[in-house]
Amino acid sequence: MYSFDYQRASDAQAAVAALGAAPDAKYLGGGQSLLPTMRLRLAQPSALVDVTRIPALGEIAVEAKTVKLGAAVCHADVASNAEIRRVLPALATLAGDIGDRQVRALGTLGGSIANNDPAADYPAALLALDATVVTDRRRIGADAFFVGMYETALEPDELIVAVEFPIPERAAYEKFRNPASHFALTGVFVAKSANGVRVAVTGAAPSVFRATDLEAALAANFTPEAARGVTISPDDLNTDMHASAEYRAHLIPVLAARAVTHANG
């Protein structure tokens, strides 16, 4: 690992200023993606700006229609929060199945979505729940936030402050996970609200995406059978050492059907 400067920001404005003052600086959340990359010398930031001690970024607020999570909230706190488990259990379940106990204790919501790993879980929750990413300067809808593999709509110095999740009528997340990393080989998040049905898929393509054919089928008939009846094209899906594009295409409606079963209780 190369040498670097370390700074701990006291508020969002200080973090942005510190990042702008150092060339090639990076924000540091839980460090679950950035630090291994640095250890392998695949990244060489000149400075790390730690945002995990900013009070506002660690807040959890459950309101009548929205769950608002600060960007520095760790996965373990989402998984164990009683109010989240009551109003949005799908999100708590998702967080509780990320990585292992050590990863969940350190990894943060903001770090996960800013990195936008193709197999990460949280991007599917944001996209399916039509969440809003709140930064130090604007609000970005989930549909516009995830741009491509490891790419988001964030500006280089833009800091995620919080994410607002609308509370759906029903929702569930199912994934077929890599047994070693617990990343999603394929994961499907299904959410039904007054505005319709949204289905987001992670782990199957270069970036998280909405499965519009499944959305249409489930909007007409929110049942496992409707989900299983949808055929997903393997075009543009990933083939790697873990699974072929065809296998991932097969998994998507299977996992969607399981998610609908759980969502329906």
Number of strands: 14
Molecular shape: globular
Q: Helical proportion?
A: 25-40%
Widest sheet, order of strands: 4-5-10-6-7
Question: How would you spell out the order of helices and strands?
Answer: EHEHEEEHHHHHHEEHEEEEEEEHHH
What assembly state would you assign to the polypeptide chains in this entry?
A: single chain
Radius of gyration: 18 Å
- CATH C-level class of the largest domain: Alpha Beta
Which fold name is given in CATH as the topology of the largest domain?
Uridine Diphospho-n-acetylenolpyruvylglucosamine Reductase, domain 3
CATH architecture heading of the largest domain: 2-Layer Sandwich
Task: Give the number of domains.
Answer: 2
- The number of helical segments is 12
Strand content: 15-25%
Give the rounded overall mean pLDDT: 96
Distance between the termini: 48 Å
Name the poorly predicted regions: none
**Sheet of most strands:** 5 strands, antiparallel
| Category by helix and strand content | alpha+beta
Topology:
Blueprint: E1 5-8, H1 12-21, E2 26-28, H2 34-39, E3 47-50, E4 60-62, E5 66-70, H3 75-80, H4 82-87, H5 89-96, H6 101-106, H7 109-115, H8 122-129, E6 132-135, E7 139-141, H9 142-145, E8 146-148, E9 151-152, E10 160-166, E11 170-177, E12 184-193, E13 196-202, E14 209-210, H10 212-220, H11 224-228, H12 245-263
Parallel strand pairs: 1-3, 2-3
Antiparallel strand pairs: 4-5, 5-10, 6-7, 6-10, 8-9, 11-12, 12-13, 13-14
